[in-house]
Specification:
By secondary structure, this protein is of the alpha+beta class. It contains 19 helices and 31 strands. Helices cover 19% and strands 29% of the residues. Strands 9, 10, 11, 12, 13, 14, 15, 16, 17 and 18 form a ten-stranded mixed sheet that branches. Strands 1, 2, 3, 4, 5, 6, 7 and 8 form an eight-stranded antiparallel sheet that branches. Strands 27-28-23-24-22-31 form a six-stranded mixed sheet. This is START domain-containing protein.
Length: 772
C-alpha cells in the first residue's frame, strides 16, 4: 500500500559513547547502564564509543512490474550495521527486521535534494556501490534537516567499517568486506540477539506526528567535521555599513566602491531563534497559508518546473497597491537554486527568469525581481543553552541612483518600494518563527532504557560470511513480506537516470588511526633542509596557459601570496582562531588549460605533460592538481606545484603524499575566492574552505617524483551546478585558489599554504585540445 502523503519523518539518534573507539569499548559501552537523564549527544561523543541512529524514513523504489512505491519504514543504524523494520522495535519487542546489511567502504551516499512524491515534497538520499552504480537504493525524509542527519549517520557507519578495515581488527571480516557484494534479495540469518541495557538519544516526537508537523532535531549532533567555525576563510572585500534597523533586522549597504556606476549591493541580516534547517524549510515551502504569515511580496507562488532536486522555477503575483500607486497587478518569474555547504549553511540564489508555461498575460505587468541571495547559517549556542539559533542574510542588487535618492531625501519613500519589501522578508521570517513555538523549540534528548534488548544487533551478532551484504542491498529492493502493502515481489530498485553522481565522505578520524601519531613538523620543517635546494628555472617549464605579465593581462595565471586567505592558527583547537596565510610552500611553475572529450586522469603521465620532460624529471617533488570541469566540451585545469627540496616523510605533507586515499580525502583542502566578478557568482562560490575529498570524487596517482590529484567536479550535482554558473561568467572573473593540507591535531598547527593560483579572465575557447 502506497503512502497517502509525505509530510514528515522522525529521526532518532542513539549513541553509545562517541564515534571512534576500540571493539572492547564498543562492547563495554553497549552493556553499560542508561546514564544520567538528559545527557546530550555532543557530551556523550567525547567519551568514546559508537553512534546509534534510528527513526522513521520513507523507502522509495520500483517493484518488478515497474510500479513506484513509497513505504514508511523504521531504520536502525548501530555501528556499521543497519536494519529496516515495518514498525518501531521499541514498541514491538521481538519484531524481526525485513532488511538488514552492513555499511561497507564501497558504499556511497548522495543527497539528491527535493522531490515530489505522492503530492508531498521530500528530501531524497541515494545509496550505491562505488564499484557498481547499478546497485543502488533510495530513502527519503520530510525535511532537509533530517536528510542531513541521516547523511551524517551513514557517514559514522562508514567510519566504523573503515576503522575495522584499516586496523585489520578482524581478518575474516576484512576479507569479506572486500568481496564483491550480492544484491540478491536474501535475508541473512541472525546468529544471536544482543542483550544488555541501551542508551537512547531520541530526536523527534514519534510517528504519531508524521502527518502534523516537521520533527524537531538536535542541532549539535554532527559528523566529525565537514567544517569548522562560523568565520570566513577569505579576507572580506566588501565593506558593509548599517544604514537602517527595522524590527531587529539590520540593513547594510556595500560602501567598498562608492564611485561604481553599477547597482548598489544591500543586505538585510537578522538572528532567528531556530536552526538553519528549520528556517530553510520555512523559506523553501510554497504553502500559501504559511507564506502569507511572513512574506509581504512573494506569498503567492506557483511551481513551474523543478530540476535535479536543487533548482526550480517559480511564478508569482502581487497586488502593488500595498507598495506603490500603481494600479495594474504585477507578476514575475524567477529561478531558485540552493545547496548546503560542508559547514551546514544553506545558500539560495534567486534570478529573474522566463518560462514557456507563463508568458506575459493581460491584466498583469511583468516585473523582474531583483537578483538576490540568501544565506542561512547556524550560530553556536551560548554555554549551557540548548536553544538553536541561526543568522539569516539576504543580499540583493538595487539601482544605485534610486538607492541614493531614497537614502538622501526621504527614507519613508523607500518603504514603498519592491527592494524594501524583499529586504523585509528577513524580518518576516524572524517574527514568524518567533510566533511559532513548535519551530523554535528543539526536542530534548532523553536517555532511557531500551525496551527491546533482544531486537538489536551488536557487531558480533553477524556471521563473518554475511558481512559482504552492503546496506544498499537492504534498501535496493522492496521488502518481501506477506503484508498487503507489499503486493508482488520486487526486484532491485531502479532510480531514474538524471545525472546523479557520487559524493565522497570519509572521516579524517578513520585515516588518523592508520597513521602513527608522531609529531608533525611545521611548514619550516616540511622540506628536507639537509638536502641542497635545486634551482627552479621558470623558463624551463611551459604550460598551455601563459603566466600573466601584470594585472591588466587576461586569460593567464599568476601566483599571489597567501595574505588573502585565513587558515587555522596554532591555538585553533582551543579558540577557533585563524591567522592570515603566508607565502606558499610550493612554487607554481606552470598551468595547463586543456579541452578534452571526457574526464582525463593521469595527466602527469601524458607525453605533453611537463613532468615527462628532462627538467620535470629532475625536480625533487611536484604536486599536480587536475581540476576536471564538466561542460560541453569538458575542460581540465592542471596546476603544477614544485618543491626545491625533497619532502620530509615525517611531516604532515609527507604523510599526505604517501598516505592512504582515506587520509588524503580527509585532509585535502581548497579555499576559493573570487576577487573580481559578478557578485552573485561570488556568493555561489563562497569563501569557505572545502574538503574536496568529502565533496567530490578525488583520485590519487603517486609515482616517481610527483603526486597527482584528479578532482572530478562533475561527481557532485551541487558542484556541477555551481561550476556551470561560474563558466557563464568566467571571461570576467578573477579567481584565487589556495591549496592546503588540513591540520587537525595540535602538532599539525598552525596550517600553512601549500600553493596558490590566480586565474585571470579565462577564455574557454583558448583551451588546448588534449587527446586521451
Amino acid at each position: 500500500m502506497e503512502a497517502e502523503g509525505i509530510t514528515q519523518t522522525e529521526v532518532t539518534v542513539r549513541k553509545v559513547g562517541g564515534s571512534v573507539g576500540s571493539e572492547k569499548e564498543l562492547l563495554d559501552s553497549s552493556s553499560s547502564g542508561s546514564g544520567s537523564s538528559g545527557r546530550r549527544a555532543g557530551e556523550d561523543k567525547e567519551k568514546g564509543g559508537a553512534f546509534e541512529y534510528f527513526g522513521w524514513i520513507y523507502h522509495l523504489g520500483t517493484n518488478s512490474i515497474g510500479h513506484e512505491y513509497c513505504h514508511l519504514r523504521f531504520l536502525f543504524i548501530r555501528g556499521k550495521y543497519v536494519e529496516m523494520y515495518k514498525r518501531d522495535p521499541h514498541e514491538s519487542p521481538g519484531i524481526k527486521p525485513i532488511r538488514r546489511g552492513v555499511v561497507g567502504p564501497t558504499l556511497m551516499v548522495e543527497e539528491l535534494g527535493r522531490r515530489k512524491v505522492n503530492q508531498g515534497d521530500v528530501y531524497v538520499i541515494r545509496f550505491y556501490s562505488r564499484l557498481d552504480e547499478t546497485k543502488k537504493g533510495e530513502i527519503a525524509c520530510a525535511t532537509a534537516g533530517e536528510a542531513r542527519k541521516w547523511m551524517e549517520a551513514f557517514d559514522h557507519a562508514k567510519q566504523q567499517a573503515e576503522i575495522e578495515l584499516s586496523t585489520g581488527r578482524s581478518p575474516r571480516t576484512r576479507l569479506s568486506i572486500e568481496n564483491e557484494i550480492d544484491l540478491e534479495a536474501h535475508r541473512p540469518k541472525m546468529r544471536r540477539y544482543a542483550h544488555g541495557l541501551k542508551r537512547l538519544i531520541r530526536i523527534g516526537q514519534g510517528p504519531e506526528t508524521l502527518l502534523r508537523q516537521a520533527s524537531n532535531l538536535v542541532g549539535n549532533v554532527k559528523s566529525d567535521g565537514f567544517f569548522e567555525a562560523e568565520s570566513e576563510d577569505v579576507i572580506e572585500v566588501h565593506q558593509w555599513r548599517c544604514v537602517r534597523t527595522v524590527n531587529g533586522v539590520r540593513i547594510f549597504e556595500d560602501v567598498s566602491n562608492p564611485k561604481s556606476d553599477k547597482g548598489t549591493l544591500v543586505k538585510a541580516v537578522g538572528v532567528v531563534d531556530a536552526s538553519a534547517d528549520t528556517v530553510f524549510d520555512v523559506f523553501i515551502n510554497l504553502d500559501q497559508q504559511q507564506r502569507y504569515e511572513w512574506d509581504t511580496l512573494t506569498g503567492d507562488l506557483e511551481l513551474l518546473d523543478s530540476y535535479d532536486g536543487h533548482y526550480d522555477v517559480l511564478y508569482g503575483t502581487y497586488d502593488p497597491k500595498y507598495l506603490t500607486r500603481w494600479k495594474s497587478n504585477r507578476d514575475f518569474v524567477f529561478s531558485r537554486q540552493w545547496f548546503r555547504g560542508q559547514d551546514g549553511a544553506y545558500t539560495i540564489l534567486q534570478f529573474p527568469a522566463v518560462h514557456k508555461k507563463r508568458p506575459p498575460s493581460s491584466g498583469y505587468r511583468r516585473t523582474k525581481i531583483n537578483p538576490s541571495t540568501w544565506e542561512i547559517r547556524n550560530l553556536s549556542a551560548p554555554m549551557g543553552s540548548a536553544t538553536a539559533r541561526c543568522i539569516v542574510s539576504q543580499m540583493l542588487e538595487i539601482n544605485q541612483a534610486g538607492w541614493c535618492k531614497w537614502k538622501q531625501n526621504s527614507c519613508a519613500k523607500f518603504e514603498k518600494t519592491i527592494p524594501y519589501a524583499l529586504l523585509s522578508q528577513v524580518a518576516g521570517l524572524k517574527e514568524y518563527v518567533g510566533a511559532s513555538p513548535a519551530l523554535r523549540v528543539e526536542s530534548s534528548t532523553t536517555v532511557v532504557r531500551s525496551k527491546f534488548s533482544d531486537a538489536s544487533m551488536s557487531p558480533i551478532d553477524y556471521d563473518d560470511a554475511e558481512v559482504n551484504d552492503e546496506f544498499y542491498d537492504a534498501i535496493a529492493g522492496e521488502s518481501s513480506s506477506s503484508s498487503d502493502e507489499e503486493e508482488g515481489s520486487s526486484k532491485n530498485s531502479h532510480s531514474k537516470k538524471d545525472g546523479r553522481v557520487k559524493l565522497k565522505n570519509v572521516s579524517w578520524a578513520i585515516a588518523s588511526l592508520a597513521l602513527k601519531r608522531n609529531s608533525a613538523p611545521g611548514a619550516e620543517e616540511t622540506l628536507d633542509l639537509n638536502v641542497p635546494p635545486v634551482i627552479i628555472e621558470p623558463s624551463e617549464f611551459k604550460g598551455s596557459l601563459h603566466k600573466g605579465k601584470d594585472e591588466k593581462d587576461s586569460n593567464c595565471w599568476t601566483s599571489p601570496n597567501g595574505s588573502g586567505f585565513k587558515i587555522r592558527g596554532k591555538t585553533y583547537l582551543k579558540d577557533n582562531s585563524k591567522v592570515v596565510g603566508g607565502d606558499p610552500l610550493l612554487q607554481l611553475i606552470a598551468v595547463d588549460w586543456f579541452k578534452v572529450d571526457r574526464a582525463a586522469d593521469g595527466v602527469a603521465l601524458h607525453p605533453k605533460c611537463l613532468l615527462q620532460t628532462a627538467a620535470g624529471k629532475q625536480l625533487p617533488f611536484v604536486l599536480v592538481i587536475n581540476l576536471q570541469i564538466p561542460a560541453k566540451p569538458n575542460y581540465s585545469l592542471v596546476l603544477y606545484y614544485a618543491a626545491d627540496r625533497p619532502v620530509n616523510k615525517a611531516s604532515l605533507l609527507g604523510k599526505f603524499i604517501d598516505g592512504t586515499d582515506m587520509f588524503r580525502d580527509s585532509r585535502f583542502k581548497l579555499i576559493p575566492s573570487i576577487i573580481e566578478g559578478y557578485w552573485m557568482v561570488k556568493r555561489a562560490v563562497g569563501t569557505k574552505a572545502c574538503l574536496l575529498g568529502k565533496a567530490v570524487t578525488c583520485k590519487y596517482l603517486r609515482q616517481d617524483n610527483f603526486l597527482e590529484i584528479d578532482v572530478d567536479i562533475g561527481s557532485s550535482s551541487v558542484a556541477r551546478s555551481v561550476i556551470g554558473l561560474v563558466l557563464g561568467y568566467v571571461t570576467s572573473l578573477v579567481v584565487d585558489l589556495a591549496i592546503l593540507v588540513e591540520g587537525k591535531e595540535e602538532a599539525e598547527l598552525p596550517e600553512f599554504v601549500l600553493g596558490t593560483v590566480r586565474l585571470n579572465k579565462l577564455k574557454p575557447e583558448t583551451a588546448e585540445t588534449l587527446e586521451v
